[in-house]
Amino acid sequence: MSVRSEARDDGIHVVTMEHPPVNALPVQGWFDVAAALDEAGADQATKVVILRAEGKGFNAGVDIKEMQNTTGFDALIGANKGCYAAFKAVYECPVPVIAAVNGFCLGGGVGLVGNADIVVASDDAYFGVPEVNQGALGAATHLARLVPQHLMRTLYFTAKTIPAADLVQHGSVYGVVPRADLDDLALSLAAEVASKDGRVIRAAKEALNGIDPIDVNTSYRFEQGFTMELNLMGVSDELRDEFAGTDKAKQK
C-alpha cells in the first residue's frame, strides 16, 4: 500500500506515504494521495491534515522505472494526471495541510510540499526539482512558493538541491528538528490549529487560497504542456532510459 490514512479523535488527520525503496510513487500512488486528502477534508470532524512519509525520504517524485517499463504513453499520462490531482488535493483541501518532510523531497514531492500550508522538516531534509535531468518540466510553480524567484530558477536549471535549514530563512519552512522529533513538531502545530473553531479554520483556508497571487493549478498545468512536447520529441524517453538504466539506453 502506498498511502494510509488515520483520522484521530482530536481533529487531526494523518496521511502517510510509504512506497519502498524511495517513495517514488507509481501512478496509482498519486491518485491515492489525492483520494486520502479529499476524504480527510470532506470529514467535517477534520480540522487539520498532516502529510508525512515513512522510509528513507519524504518523496522521490514519480516512479520513472514504471514509466519506462510501460508500453506507450499510459504511464506518462497517468503520472501527469495523478500528480495534478495530488497537488490540487493538497492545495484545495478545505483545512490546513502540514507537510512533515524527512530526508529527500524531490520532483513531485516539491509539488506536494509547495502546495501545503505549513512545512516542517527534519535536519536531514533537502528539496529539489531534478526534472530537467529526466527531460520533463513541472513543479517550478511549487518550488517558487518555497524560495525567491531567482533562486528558484537557479535550482531549476541546475537541478541542485537545497537543505531544509536554508528554507527556514526564507520563511517557507517553519522549523527544522532531528528526524526523531519531526512527528512531534508536526503534531504540536496541528494541535494548535485543531484547538480553533473548525468553521473559522475552514473559512480561513478558503480565504487565503482566494487571495493567492497565482493560480497554482493553471500554472502547473501550463508546465505539464512542455513535458508532453518533450516526450513527443523523444527527448524525455531518452533521458529517462539513461536514468533508469534500461536496456534501451544500453543499446544506444
Automatic annotation (TrEMBL):
GO terms for biological process: fatty acid beta-oxidation. One of its GO terms (molecular function) is lyase activity. The keyword ATP-binding does not apply. InterPro entries: ClpP/crotonase-like_dom_sf, Enoyl-CoA_hydra/iso. Keywords: Lipid metabolism, Lyase. The keyword Secreted does not apply. Belongs to the enoyl-CoA hydratase/isomerase family. This is Enoyl-CoA hydratase family protein. It comes from Aeromicrobium terrae.
